[in-house]
Design a protein that fits this description.
single chain; 4-stranded antiparallel beta sheet
């Protein structure tokens, strides 16, 4: 996913901001799910790189 924002200033200047991200995951048969994501952002001429990791476990509950 991504987005670009272009700003035009009244004094004739301009600027563009950018955000792009990608993520992927896999669900195992034992109930575990792992996902990894990466994002790149540029705003006000400052760049940022973000990496995220998510690990989840599904639990089944029974009632009597």
């Amino acid at each position: 996913a991504g987005t670009i924002r272009r700003l035009d200033f009244g004094d004739g200047g301009d600027q563009s901001d950018l955000l792009a991200q990608v993520s992927a995951g896999y669900a195992f048969d034992n109930g575990f799910d792992v996902s990894l994501g990466y994002a790149y952002a540029r705003a006000d001429d400052v760049e940022a790189h973000v990496v995220g990791l998510r690990l989840t476990k599904e639990f089944a509950f029974t009632t009597r």
